[in-house]
Structure formats: C-alpha cells, structure tokens
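Holo prediction — NAP.
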Amino acid sequence: MSRLDIVIFGATGFTGRKAVEEAVRISKKTPISWGVAGRSQQKLEQLLAEVGAKTGGDDLSKVKMIIADVKDEQSLKDMTSQAKVIANCCGPYRLYGEPVIKACIATKTHHVDVSGEPQFIESQQLAHGAAAAAAGVYVVSACGFDSIPNDMGVVFLQQNFPGTLNSVESYLWTHMPDQYYKEMMTGGCIHYGTWESLVYSLAHSGELSALRKQLFPTKLPAFKPRLEARSRVHKHDSKWCLPFPGADNSIVYRTQRYFYETKQQRPVQFKAYISMNSLATTILLILNAVFVSAMTSWGWSRKLLLNYPRLFSMGMVTHDGPTEGVMDNTFFTFTLRGEGWSEGADMENTKPDKHMVVKVKGVNPGYGATVTALMYSALTVLKEQDKMPGTGGVLTTGAAFKDTSLIKHLNENNLTFEIVCDSKK
Ligand SMILES: NC(=O)c1ccc[n+]([C@@H]2O[C@H](COP(=O)([O-])OP(=O)(O)OC[C@H]3O[C@@H](n4cnc5c(N)ncnc54)[C@H](OP(=O)(O)O)[C@@H]3O)[C@@H](O)[C@H]2O)c1
C-alpha cells in the first residue's frame, strides 16, 4: 500500500484544524496526498465537512481518515505506517508527544511538530536521536511560530552576512488594528492547548539543566565579544522590551551548536526579546509571568491554572480560542539585529564593524503562520531530503532546513524574511 505524503495528527484540535485548512490551500497549487488522524471518527468527519465548507465548498469526503490514540501504541504505528511525514498537532507534547515519535521511528516515518516545549524537544533528541538517525527518520520539532522565525531568521542572517556574524538580538513586535481589541478581550488570543503546554513546560523547567548536561557534556568555547543579556526591562526603538518567554533561545542555541560540532562553524550568540508599547503593560506581563510561573510549582495551584485559564492569563487564554477576526488581524514582526565583522577584518583584535538587520513578518502568529511553517516544513522533508543533513536524526529547524528552499516557500506564503539594513557600524 502506498503511503500518503502527509498525515495531520491531532487534526481535530484548534491548531490541527488550521493545519487542515492549510493542507487544502496548499494542495490546490501543489499536488500532495494527505490525510487526517485523530481518536474520534465522528470528530474527523465533522472536521472535514466544516473545513470543506469554510474553504469554499471543497468536497473533502475522500480525504483519508485514520483513527489513532496516543494511549494505543498499535494504533499509532498503524497511522504512521500510512504516511511519509506526520505533521503532529497533538499537544501538550510532554503528555502526548513521545509515543508518536517512537511509532514514527519504528515505521520509518518522518515527523514534524509545533512544540514549543524545550524539555520535550531536548529529551527527544537525547532519547531518540541515535535511533532516528539509524532508521533514516527526520524528527524536527518547533516548526511553528516557535521557532521558525527566529531559528531560520538567524540562519538567513548567517547565510547573507558578508563576513562573520557574532551575535543576533531579536525583538518581537505584535500589533492589531484598534477595532479588534474588544473582540480580543472577549475571545482571547491564545487557545487553551498552548496554555496547557505552557503550564506543564514551566512546571518541569527545572529538568532542563540535568538534561542539557547529558545532551551537551562539553561546553562551547567562549566567543568574544560576549553578547550580554539586556536588563529585564529595557527600552529599544522607543518600545518597552523584556526577554522573550518562548523556546527560541534554546532552539537557536541547539542549531548553532550543531553547526559548530558538524561544520566547525563559529556559533552565533543569540538573545530574544518581546517589545511592548507601554511600560504599564510590560510590568503587568512580568508580574503575571512571575505569578503563573510560581503557581506551576505545586499540584493544587497547577490545577487552578488549568481550570481557570482566562483568569490567570489576564483574559488572553480561552477554551474556544481567538476569533477569526482577531487571528487574521494579528500581525507580527521579528527584527533580528545581527553584528559581526566584515570580510577580512581582524576578529581577534577589533570590535565588530558591521551590522545587518533582517525582518521576519507574518499574520496570525499562533494559528496562521504556525501552520504555514508546519506544512511547508513537512513538504520540505518530503521533497528535499537530498539537501538535508545526513539521513535522519532529531534536529532543529535550522539544522534540518538550512540548505533547503523552506525560506523561499515561506516568503511566497505570507511569512517573509527580508534584509532591511546592511551597513558598516
Ligand atoms: N509553536 C507554536 O507556535 C504553536 C502554536 C499553536 C499551538 N502550538 C501547540 O500545539 C499543541 C496543540 O494546541 P491546540 O491549541 O491545538 O490544542 P487542542 O485544541 O487541545 O488539540 C489537541 C489535539 O490533541 C488530540 N488528543 C488529545 N489526547 C489525545 C489522545 N490520547 N490520542 C489522540 N489524540 C489526542 C485532541 O483530540 P480530540 O479532539 O479528540 O480531543 C486534539 O486534536 C499545543 O502543544 C500547543 O502548544 C504551538
């Protein structure tokens, strides 16, 4: 039996549904065979009917439906053996991710996902990196808003920097027209699945240090000049900024480490920040983050966080997820400021003399740009393995896709990477 090109697992979830819409859009211009998988036949049928109606009356009744439950190993293998690539939207990945990766390795099926959970991602590299490579299977996590813009953005800067790139600071800015704020206050801007993943991720963040000691037993050499972290709250480009709370720092670090270990390439130092208009919002966000983070420490308070997401997220998280209006009108820009030396400069004895700025822009970060990046990552694994390193392994997006045409495809699909400044300092 021939395999489908891509099967979307967790298709009935909030993100999975958007991935299905994206598959319909993509399949109208690129011939691919694809299917959906989940644990309920009835939900899958309803999903296909609703998506078909939404995308303009497409008849999706012939789309293959596969029943698979994370708790049933055989059902996962039955699913993965019917696909060349699994696009996995079934999270929190800490709870549901590993059995799917194991089934993929057992049936020689590639795997991409939109996890933003560093412990999950790094623990999979540690536990299954060798087996995935031996099986010729690519497992690439964080193919969504976490962390394609920053990870591929740094790779894009590296590839275009005429000289040696030493460091990158990234500033994320999101905005929406005023008329959608009221809608956002009612429907929120984040679906519960992301909140649940965040709560478990924060609760287990203490595991990272031991995990990293095992994963990276040797330290990277100290490269100079060192990119110092800016103060927790600082002003930049007339906005208030604070450290970006996502997985991007850890993903970019792993990519850069991979290049250093496999190609002896000087690693780029990286720090990510998020920008806000007002100091009051910035302080409120920090207080909320500290409070939520503390509350993830105990079972009883975790339960409260999970039971009352809206209350503890200041209205941002809802069970229904954001409205279409809010999603389609949330715009984002990552400004990646790179510094380094121009070609031939004396890197030992002179300071960086060159800078380059890249902007990565898109719409609907959580559920639009994310599924575009996910589906094009899946397509890249499907079609461009000859440009990917080795024959498999648990890799970051940057390590996996550096030499592929992923950025070109994203540029053509509303997630754009552009050099906006290239000058001497
Ligand atoms: N990196 C990014 O930028 C980004 C953006 C968006 C989302 N995400 C991540 O994507 C994940 C999903 O988020 P979401 O909001 O879409 O969550 P969601 O709506 O709750 O979807 C979860 C999916 O998992 C399925 N599922 C749960 N338990 C299962 C089991 N035992 N067997 C099979 N399927 C099972 C659910 O199926 P049922 O419908 O049957 O319950 C549903 O399809 C989260 O981890 C989130 O953090 C990441």
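READOUT: The two ends are 59 Å apart (CA to CA).
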